């Protein structure tokens, strides 16, 4: 959509307030819930919501309802390139170290770090029963088998967010090496026990780390898998960008996740942060991280849910950040 002069005027008016300017800056950096913004800014929810509404009506941010949560983020350069360029230009003039924006960025990072810790604690707590919980949702759909069939034979495969190693077990017969990464030590202990003393043990490498700072070398893997992981992460694009870093040229990325849904119980029982990821958002995330989707298939599972399985190719950066070529 091409912005009119009225749109530009509304954008300027929307940012002509210190609180809205600070909110927009934070939401350029991270997607956050209204509750997290309330905590971070120390303001009442009605006040924060009023400011968010003005920014949203100006076309600078997007807020969407997911069950009991409302998630907000700045528009991206793919869906609203002019609006995003307006935001980026504004904050480039202010500079990242300008007060109070630097302090806001630190507080936002602290809030998101707590979200990551809460997720890690959840998975450590349910590690022993995770396989059962996972099967309870997937039912008869053999997700792990579907992923394994798409992995090139003889490849080094990175399973990011590997959990207790069930998918790794299915990947080993096709791979020369399977690298499992997880930030939950309880999950890695179970994965280690799964392969200890088996013929597969020599072709397994388990590594503790965050998916936004992977303990892998650049281009170390010929295939990278994120299975039912993205909806747990505070910054999926950053994780996908890291996946691109460790994926060798010509490699394949496989992403499985729930399609968007409204089953709020998934948060309590399975520790989900997002209620799935719709196709459009998934394609946008892949593009921002430097991938070109080759296919996305939908597979209905239990509890009224649908699993999306996407296959993507690593795109090679061209002359500019927003142009890509295979």
Could you explain how this protein is built, in words?
The chain is α/β, with parallel strands linked by helices and 326 residues long. The chain folds into 2 domains: 5-98, Arc Repressor Mutant, subunit A (Orthogonal Bundle), CATH 1.10.10; 128-325, Vaccinia Virus protein VP39 (Rossmann fold), CATH 3.40.50. Helices cover 44% and strands 23% of the residues. It has helices spanning 5-14, 18-29, 34-41, 45-57, 81-94, 101-126, 130-138, 143-149, 166-171, 185-195, 236-246, 265-270, 279-289; strands at residues 32-33, 61-66, 69-74, 155-160, 175-182, 204-208, 221-227, 247-258, 291-300, 306-314, 316-317, 324-325. Strands 6-5-4-7-8-10-9 form a 7-stranded mixed β-sheet, with helices on both faces. The protein is globular and about 65 Å long.
Q: Calculate the mean pLDDT score and round it.
A: 87
Into which percent range does the helicity of residues fall? 40-55%
SSE arrangement, N to C: HHEHHEEHHHHEHEHEEHEHHEEEE
CATH T-level topology of the largest domain: Rossmann fold
The CATH superfamily of the largest domain bears the name: Vaccinia Virus protein VP39
Q: Tell me what the CATH architecture of the largest domain is.
A: 3-Layer(aba) Sandwich
For the sheet with most strands, the description reads: 7 strands, mixed
Q: What is the CA–CA distance across the termini?
A: 27 Å
How many domains in all? Answer: 2
Q: State the shape.
A: globular
The strand line-up of the biggest sheet is 6-5-4-7-8-10-9
SS-derived structural category: alpha/beta
How many DSSP E strands?
12
Unreliable sequence segments: 1-6, 319-326
Q: Evaluate the radius of gyration.
A: 21 Å
């Amino acid at each position: 959509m091409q912005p009119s002069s009225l749109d530009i005027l509304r954008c300027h008016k929307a940012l002509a307030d210190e609180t809205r300017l600070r909110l927009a800056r934070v939401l350029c950096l991270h997607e956050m819930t209204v509750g997290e913004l309330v905590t971070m800014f120390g303001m009442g929810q009605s006040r924060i919501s009023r400011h968010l509404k003005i920014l949203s009506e100006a076309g600078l941010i997007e807020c969407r309802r997911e069950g009991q949560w409302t998630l907000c983020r700045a528009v991206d350069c793919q869906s609203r390139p002019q609006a995003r360029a307006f935001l980026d230009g504004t904050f480039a003039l202010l500079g990242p170290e300008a007060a109070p924006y630097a302090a806001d960025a630190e507080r936002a990072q602290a809030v998101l770090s707590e979200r990551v810790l809460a997720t890690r604690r959840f998975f450590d707590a349910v590690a022993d029963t995770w396989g059962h919980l996972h099967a309870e949702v997937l039912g008869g759909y053999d997700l792990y088998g579907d992923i394994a069939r798409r992995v090139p034979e003889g490849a080094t495969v990175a399973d990011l967010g590997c959990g207790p190693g069930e998918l790794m077990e299915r990947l080993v017969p096709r791979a020369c090496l399977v690298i499992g990464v997880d930030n939950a030590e309880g999950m890695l202990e179970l994965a280690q026990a799964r392969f200890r003393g088996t013929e597969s043990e020599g072709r397994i490498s388990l590594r503790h780390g965050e998916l936004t700072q992977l303990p892998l070398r650049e281009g170390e893997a010929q295939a990278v898998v994120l299975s039912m992981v993205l909806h747990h992460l505070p910054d999926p694009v950053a994780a996908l960008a890291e996946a691109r870093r460790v994926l060798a040229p010509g490699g394949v990325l496989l992403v499985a996740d729930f399609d968007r849904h409204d089953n709020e119980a998934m948060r309590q029982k399975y520790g989900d942060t997002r209620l799935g990821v719709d196709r459009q958002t998934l394609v946008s995330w892949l593009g921002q991280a430097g991938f070109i989707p080759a296919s996305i298939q939908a597979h209905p599972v239990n509890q009224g849910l649908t699993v999306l399985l996407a296959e993507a190719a690593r795109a090679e950066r061209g002359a500019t950040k927003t142009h890509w070529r295979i």
